[in-house]
């Protein structure tokens, strides 16, 4: 199966895979921080799996993981 025939992902699906909100993806696109995907026959963004992986990698570069000590602090 070629990349063109492979299942394309929606912006919401890409956001879920990257662990961010759909609006975050839209903001990154607006600022030109990530590549604009092709659109399908309806005009909706249709992401390839490679593009989704790139978005996830971008998120991991700009959003540092929280420190383990911060996660273990008791609340209250």
Number of helices: 4
Q: How do the SSEs run, as a string of H and E?
A: HHHH
Q: Considering DSSP H and I runs of 4 or more, what fraction of the residues is helical?
A: 40-55%
CATH fold-level assignment: Multidrug-efflux Transporter Regulator, Chain: A, Domain 2
Computed structural class = mainly alpha
Strand content: under 5%
Runs with pLDDT <50, length 5+?
none
Query: Can you tell me the overall shape?
Result: globular
- What's the domain count? 1
Instruction: Specify the CATH architecture.
Output: Orthogonal Bundle
For the biggest sheet, the summary is: none
The tally of beta strands, per DSSP, is: 0
How would you summarize this macromolecular structure in one to three sentences?
With 76 residues, this protein is mainly α.
Kindly list the characteristics that best describe this protein.
76 residues; mainly alpha; Multidrug-efflux Transporter Regulator, Chain: A, Domain 2; 49% helix; globular
List the SSEs and their pairings.
Blueprint: H1 11-18, H2 22-31, H3 49-62, H4 68-72
Helix pairs in contact: 1-2, 1-3
């Amino acid at each position: 199966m070629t990349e063109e025939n492979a299942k394309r992902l929606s912006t919401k699906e890409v956001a879920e895979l990257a662990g961010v909100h759909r609006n975050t993806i839209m903001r990154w696109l607006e600022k030109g921080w990530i590549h604009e995907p092709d659109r399908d026959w309806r005009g909706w963004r249709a992401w390839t799996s490679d593009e989704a992986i790139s978005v996830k990698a971008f998120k991991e570069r700009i959003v540092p993981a929280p420190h383990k000590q911060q996660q273990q602090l008791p609340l209250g």
